[in-house]
Amino acid sequence: MMSPRAKWPNLVQIKLRSIKKSADQMTSFYSSLDDRAFWKSGVAETSPLNLKDLYQKKWTISPRWQIGTAGSCFAQHIARHLRKNGYNVLDAEPPPNFLRERLHLAYGYSMYSGRYGNIYTVRQFRQLIDEAFSDTPQEMLIWEKDGRVYDALRPAIEPNGFASIVEAQEARAYHLACVRKLFMDVDLFVFTLGLTEAWFHDATGRVVPIAPGVVAGGDKTDEYSFRNFTYPELLSDFRETMKALNKHRGRRLRFLLTVSPVPLTATASGGHVLAASTYSKAVLRAVAGSLCDSSSNVDYFPSYEIITNPAARGTFFAPNLRSVQNEGVEVVMKTYFSAHPPQINNGTESECDTAEETGADVQCEEELLGAFQK
């Protein structure tokens, strides 16, 4: 005898056939929706390499606009391809002439529009803006290792650290001046939301991009506390950042937000890394969506959805299931450039140069956390 549970699929199929049979006589809210509104036609039966109508831009980017970039590691791909395809991406803190090009990324140059390294959290972004426009310089957070000095707010931009605190202070003062000029000049800022987990300096409340002891500062671990940002905190931080920038600039800045599809390398939340990563991405996506829906100067580009699309069956990820492969980056940028066409004909349109674009070309200090696995 068939169990009641086993009958359910047949009952559902019968109901579906009944609805389809009478569809010509029925109308509902869903009757007039496009194919992109339905999972079957919008995802299951659509190639993950060509998702039509996934992104509908809010505004057209003018060739005259000056563009700034920042965010978590995945943002480096976006910055590189915008520049490669003729967009006016600013570099307010270019590398010195004596530094070989192959060392630019290792020293924090040419990653983004400033030498701030990866900005993983919205709070990091907010405190950078606050400090850059402050009339009162803040005391530096200094880490040390092997007799060298590190700027704790961007510890990876000098692989071997600074020779002295004075040298680190001078470099930071110059950096903040560059950041201030960047945000006074820029017309559009592309920012990739990456993490909700962060480490706070207890005495000052400032956030650092990586836990002390990973790059340097192993003797300072008792001065920092872990925190996992919530949706209200992140939303408030970004809105306060926009408000501060509008005040200093005297005009509104447009933002193009994305969410990094790269999962967490490790979590300090006490939970499983899969659940922690899901929480982080869900909250960040909700924040980006809320900002886009409520602000005419904020747009959202779905790079996260493109890479994590179930139809891709994980093929956009490398075998470690974290790093995004060149093919995935290519699909992301093709989708972007279908809405915002390249400003130049570079012979490859928006294709990735696979000889140049490799995982090694992305600087991501968060990956260092994997070395602490026992």
List the helices and strands and how they pair.
Elements lengths: L3 H18 L17 H6 L22 E5 L3 H10 L37 H11 L9 E4 L2 E4 L13 H21 L2 E6 L3 E5 L5 E2 L15 E5 L2 H19 L4 E6 L13 H22 L3 E3 L2 H6 L17 H14 L35
Parallel strand pairs: 1-4, 4-8, 8-9
Antiparallel strand pairs: 2-3, 5-6, 5-7
Salient structural properties:
globular, 4-stranded parallel sheet, 3-stranded antiparallel sheet, 374 residues, alpha/beta
Architecture overview:
The chain is 34% helix and 11% strand. The protein is built from nine helices and nine strands. It has helices at 4-21, 39-44, 75-84, 122-132, 165-185, 231-249, 273-294, 303-308, 326-339; strands spanning 67-71, 142-145, 148-151, 188-193, 197-201, 207-208, 224-228, 254-259, 298-300. The strands form three sheets. The protein has a four-stranded parallel sheet with strand order 1-4-8-9, with helices on both faces. Strands 6-5-7 form a three-stranded antiparallel sheet. Helix 7 links the parallel strand 8 and strand 9 (298-300).
Order of helices and strands: HHEHHEEHEEEEHEHEHH
The class by helix and strand makeup works out as: alpha/beta
Beta percentage is 5-15%
Number of strands: 9
Low-pLDDT stretches are: 347-360
Give the oligomer, counting copies of the same chain as homo and different chains as hetero.
single chain
Shape: globular
Radius of gyration: 23 Å
Number of contiguous helices: 9
What's the average pLDDT?
89
Helix fraction bin: 25-40%
Please give the largest β-sheet: 4 strands, parallel
Distance between the termini: 53 Å
> Largest beta sheet: what is the strand line-up?
1-4-8-9
